[in-house]
Specification:
With 93 residues, this protein is an alpha+beta fold. The chain has a domain of 63 residues. The chain has four helices and three strands, in the order H-E-H-H-E-H-E. It has a three-stranded antiparallel β-sheet.
Length: 93
């Protein structure tokens, strides 16, 4: 019995990724949001898993900033806006 070969499903990053226009969504530190608040935002908005969100939150806390997502500007812009709506400081570099 021959098995079906399914086409590879492209992720949003692959569909919208242009290496010439690669950018980073950067989350910046603040002194008033809890770790839990930031972790939840990264999970819900950036689709991080728990460990990745915790690591990014620690980097933001100790280093002042962290690249939380990579992709094109059009891919990152809605995530940046959602983070800003949650009163977090985010930029696209």
């Amino acid at each position: 019995m021959a098995s079906k070969i399914l086409p590879k499903k492209e992720s949003d990053e692959e569909k919208d990724f242009d290496s010439a226009n690669e950018r980073f969504l950067v989350l910046h530190n603040d002194d008033y949001h809890t770790f839990e608040y930031v972790i939840d935002a990264l999970i819900n908005i950036c689709e991080h898993d728990l460990v990745q969100a915790e690591q990014c939150t620690l980097l933001v806390h100790y280093k002042g900033r962290c690249d939380v997502k990579k992709g094109s500007y059009t891919y990152l812009k809605p995530m940046k806006n959602a983070l800003i709506q949650k009163d977090l400081k985010a930029t696209i570099d």
